[in-house]
Amino acid sequence: MKMEIPYIVRRMTLEDLPEVMEIEKVSFKRPWPLSAYHYELTRNDRGFYIVVRLKERGGEGPLLAYGGFWLVVDEAHICTLAVKPEWRGKGLGELILYSLIELALRLGAEIASLEVRVSNKVAQNLYRKYGFEEVGKRKGYYSDGEDALIMTAFDINSQEYRTLLAKNRKSLERKLKGRRPWWNWIAFMRR
């Protein structure tokens, strides 16, 4: 189903990496190096990465957000998610999360998991909205010594979870839609 929103969501390519790295460096205390993303896109057949770009008349605008997961057996482990600082709070983090879960479902995932800083309450609330539960803690997980919460959404193929996803999708589309009505979603799975 097509979502009418003012953004393009598609798979990440090597051409996206300069802009990904700009966001990476301002979003994380210990950013992944360019070589890690290059490896993920060219050599890791279990890594799946997407970007959100502003849709402009006739094409793509700047890169605003990105995310990715590793598919290990039936688990999609979300390993990165970042939004350009000036675009935070506009629903793009949720758009990335929703899109990652949709892609994971298409690839046969049954579970989605991630780590999040114990201090990042905004992200934790978003993950809870999408059915993630706290299942553990990793002491000193981050380079600055902060702990991470381990959060997991179980049975994402269930009808109950799909109903939650559909409800959140409608809410997200309403949130994102009003920005510029002539824009359309380009499904990242088709690229």
Mind explaining what this structure looks like?
With 191 residues, the chain is an alpha+beta fold. The chain has one domain: 3-Layer(aba) Sandwich (Aminopeptidase). It has five helices and seven strands; from the N terminus they run βααβββαβαββα. It has a seven-stranded mixed sheet, sandwiched between helices. A hairpin with a 2-residue loop joins strand 3 and strand 4. Helix 3 packs antiparallel against helix 5. The C terminus is likely disordered.
Give me the count of strands: 7
Report Rg.
16 Å
Shape descriptor reads globular
Domain tally: 1
Task: Describe how the helices and strands are arranged.
Layout: E1 7-11, H1 17-27, H2 34-42, E2 47-56, E3 59-72, E4 75-83, H3 92-106, E5 111-117, H4 121-129, E6 133-138, E7 148-153, H5 159-177
Parallel strand pairs: 4-5
Antiparallel strand pairs: 1-2, 2-3, 3-4, 5-7, 6-7
Main features:
single chain; 191 residues; alpha+beta; Aminopeptidase; 5 helices; 7 strands; globular; disordered C terminus
Could you write a compact summary of the structure shown?
The chain is 33% helix and 30% strand.
